[in-house]
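Q: Structure tokens for this one, please.
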Amino acid sequence: MILVEDINPGVAQSKIRYEDRIGLDGKPVKRLIIEGYALVCDIAGINGREYPRDIIAREIERLNREAVPYGRLAAELNHPRLDPEGNSRDYPICELDLSKMCAVVEELRMEGNKVYCRMVVAEDMDAGHNLAGALKAGYHPGYSIRGAGDTIPKGDHEVITDNYTLITIDVVGNPSFGKSAIVNSRYESQAMPKNMKALTESANNLRREVAVNHRLRDLGYRQFEVSGFMQFAYSQV
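A: Here is the predicted structure, written as tokens:
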């Protein structure tokens, strides 16, 4: 089953700012950064589910090995839409719908029993442009994890089991207090819509830039000639 969890609005306070980054041409660029908490572990959330810290910490460790350093963990603007039976209306729910991609996660970690995330807003993509407009108008979004797994009863709520897999963290509006969404988690591939080519290119460029800046932070942001930087950048991703 697919599980989505919205954090209590009182906990999900966002920090929003512009930060300096290095673009793929080796020149400084300003990127819109958002950060906040996506989950509080070991307590029942507003959707009536509890997420044990050890399971979530394991999944964050996995994503930090497989996805985050390479700019491959992306956020959608709101969770995928579901029909009354819990099936995805638009796109396979375990895949990334690039038409809704709004940010790339560049840092993900545990802070005590909370899940902290920092994202680079994809302002060149439609959903990221819409998110940036809302942020600049003073809106503070929330963050919500999306994952797949089973639950078992525990008192007056449910707790996720050890087969849980964290898929990504989405940027959401008002948290949902309705019935939790549960859908079939079998991976089903679909043909890419015709309008996806430009979106894929834009998403891949931001993914590569995030990966390069992740590596540059490890190296202490040494200075590169532009030609040398380009060779370095593409060798890292």
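A few notes: Confidence is low (pLDDT under 50) at residues 6-12, 175-203, 223-227. The chain has four helices and eleven strands.
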